[in-house]
Amino acid sequence: MTDRTTDLLPEGLEDRLIQSAAAATRIERAVLDRLTAHGYDRVRPPLIEFERSLAARMDGVSRNHMFRFVDPKSLRTLALRGDITVQVGRIAATSLVEAPRPLRLAYAGQVVKIAGTALEPRRENLQLGAELIGTDSVAAACEIVELAIAALEAAGATGISVDFTMPDLVDVLADGPLPLADREAVRRELDMKDAGALTEAGGAAYLPLLFATGALPEALAELEALNKDGVLDSRIAAISQIAARVEGRARLTLDPTERHGFEYQSWFGFTLYAQGVRGELGRGGTYRIGGSGEVATGFSLYPEELVDAVKAQENIGEKVFLPLGHDEAAAEKLRAEGKRTVAALSDADDAVALGCSHRLEGSEATPL
Amino acid sequence: MTDRTTDLLPEGLEDRLIQSAAAATRIERAVLDRLTAHGYDRVRPPLIEFERSLAARMDGVSRNHMFRFVDPKSLRTLALRGDITVQVGRIAATSLVEAPRPLRLAYAGQVVKIAGTALEPRRENLQLGAELIGTDSVAAACEIVELAIAALEAAGATGISVDFTMPDLVDVLADGPLPLADREAVRRELDMKDAGALTEAGGAAYLPLLFATGALPEALAELEALNKDGVLDSRIAAISQIAARVEGRARLTLDPTERHGFEYQSWFGFTLYAQGVRGELGRGGTYRIGGSGEVATGFSLYPEELVDAVKAQENIGEKVFLPLGHDEAAAEKLRAEGKRTVAALSDADDAVALGCSHRLEGSEATPL
Hints:
Two copies of one chain form a homodimer. With 368 residues, chain A is α+β, with helices and mostly antiparallel strands. The first copy, chain A, has three domains: 1-153 and 278-316, Bira Bifunctional Protein, Domain 2 (BirA Bifunctional Protein, domain 2, 2-Layer Sandwich); 168-258, no CATH class; 319-367, no CATH class. Chain A has helices at residues 18-37, 51-56, 84-93, 138-155, 169-175, 183-192, 195-200, 218-223, 233-245, 304-310, 328-336; strands at 41-42, 48-50, 68-70, 77-80, 103-112, 124-133, 161-165, 214-215, 251-254, 265-273, 282-288, 295-301, 319-322, 340-343, 358-361, 364-367. In chain A, helix 11 (328-336) links the parallel strand 13 and strand 14 (340-343). Chain A is elongated. Chains A and B meet through helix 1, strand 1, strand 2, helix 3 and strand 5 of A and helix 1, strand 1, strand 2, helix 3 and strand 5 of B. Chains A, B: It comes from Aurantiacibacter xanthus.
C-alpha cells in the first residue's frame, strides 16, 4: 500500500489513503474549528469560475498557472481555482459587500495549479485560511498572526516559526530619506543578498538591510540603522507589537526584504514553518482585495507536508468486531462512546485481518 | 445577501455563504462521522485524473459529462471528476488491492459535471458516500441501506424514504420462465409504465410488474404473480430481509423496473429521499467495479438540496464580543466551552452589528 500511484495518476497528483486521509481530515477540522471559535464564518465558493473573474482579482500574475477550459453553456473560459483567497475577496466585494466590517471569513478546500516545481511537485493542495476584511491595522495583523499560530497548534504542529517581512520597506525608504536611481535593481540585489552588487546598483545606503535578518529583536535593532528621521518608527513598532502578542508561542524571525510570494502584500507579510515539516506551511499578511481595493489581512495554510509528516503516526481509532448475531444495542452503545465497529457479514470475515483490536462478546468489547 | 450570484458565476455554480456553508459543513461531518463509526475509512482521491482512467471505469457513459483539458506535463487529457465512486474503485483495484475484504471505504468531496439539467441545474455537487468492496451479498445490501439511513439521520434529515429497485429483474424473468423476443422494447415500455404498449411489445406476461410498485410489502406480494417456479424466491427474500433490517426508520417502497441511474447496479439498487427536500438525496446498490470487475455495494449522498432546505434555520453559534483590553484567559475559557468570540480591533467595532449576542465583562459573558 502506498500513497504514490504515479503510473495511474498524473504527475503531482495523488490519492490520500487511509492514514493520510485521516490526518488531512483531522487537521482540516481542527483548523476550521479554531477559526470558527474566533468568530470566522466559513464560506464555500465553487471549484470553477469564469477565468476572467479569477484572473482579474489576481492582477493576472497567476493566470497562466490555472487549468482553463471552455464552458459549453456560456462559451466563456472557465478556470479551476488555484487560490481560494481571490474567491473570498470576490464574495466580500459582492454578496457580502453590505455585511458589517471587519468581516471575518474562513475557508477550506482543494486548489489546483497547472504545474508544480522541482521543490513543490504537488499540483493539488488543500488550502485552509481566514480573511479579516475591512482592516489592515496593526491590531488586525496581531489577530491574524496569533490565529495562524493557534490554527497550526490545533492541527498538531510543534516548533512553529514565523518569519516576518516588510514588503514595502524599500519603497518607504526610497520615497523618504534614501532615494534610489534604480529601485528595481536594488530590490533584486537585496533578494540575492549580494553586498557588492547592491553597492554597484547604487544601494550602498541599504547595506544594513542585509544584516537586519534573523531572530527578533536583534534584526529589528539592526533595522534602526536605517531609521532616519523616524521614518521606520511605526513599522518597527508594529512588528514589535505583533511579536509581543505571540511571544513564547513561536520562534520569530525577520527577513525584511523578502519579496517572493508577497507581491500582493502591503506593509506586512509572514511565512509559517513547523519543526519536522518540509518547506512552508502557509503565509499571510495585509493586502488590498483585487478589484474592490478594500483593505484586508489574512493567512492561508497548505498543510499537505504536515499531513505527510504525521500520517504514519495518525491514530485512526480502535475497531471492535461485531460477530454475526451480535447485540445491536451494545454495538450502538460502543459507537456512541466513540468506538468504531466492523460488522461481520459472513462466517468468513476475519476480525484481526479487518484491523479489529476487540470483539463484541455479549455486551462487552473484549481484546482479541 | 444571497447565495445566487448568477451574474458573477457560471450557470449552475454558486457560492455557499455563511448559513449554507455552515449547514454543508455540519452535514458533511455528521455523515463522515457516522461512516467512520461503522468502520469505514476515508480516502481522498484528487480532483483531476487522466480522463481515460476515469472514463474506463465508467464504461464510457458519463465521459462526455466531464470537463476535460490537456495536461501540459503529460500532454494527456485530464478530466475534472464527476463521481468519486469510480476513484474509490480505482483505489480498491490498485493501491488497496491487497487489503483484506470486505474493504470499507468512505469519501467526501466536490464533483463537477459539464451540464446540469432543467430539473437539476447545479453543476457542482458535494458527494459523500461509502463503499463496501468485495461483497454484494444480501448482508452487504442490508448494511449499506441501514448505513445510508443512519447517515441521513445524522445529517438531520427526517421523513426518510427508500425506494428499492431490482435492476436485473427483466433479465432474470426473460432468461427463465418468461422469454422475450425484444427485451429492450419491453424494458422501454416498463419504464413508460404503458400497459397497452407493453402488450404490443410482446410483454403481456410482464403486466403484473406495473402493479408491483409502491409500498412494501404490498408491492412484493404483487411480484409473487411473476414468481414462476420460484425464480424470484431469492430476490423477494432479499428485498424482504433488507426491508426488515430498516423497518420503522424509513418509508419503504418498490419500483422493481426503475432503470434510470441504475445502469451499473447488478441485482439491487435504491434511491433515498427525505421530507421537505426536493428530489433525490442519494442512491446506492450492488455493482461490479469497472476495470477490475470486483463486486461491491455502496451508496452516495448528494446533500445540496438538504443544505438548501435547512440553511435558513442553521445555527451558527452564539458570538461573544471581546472589548479592547479584555481578559484573554476568560476569552479562551469561553472558546473552550464552545462559545465563539469576536475580538474588538478598534473602538469603532460594533458588537451588535458584528452579530454578537453577548459581551465579555470581566470574566463573564453578559447578554447585549
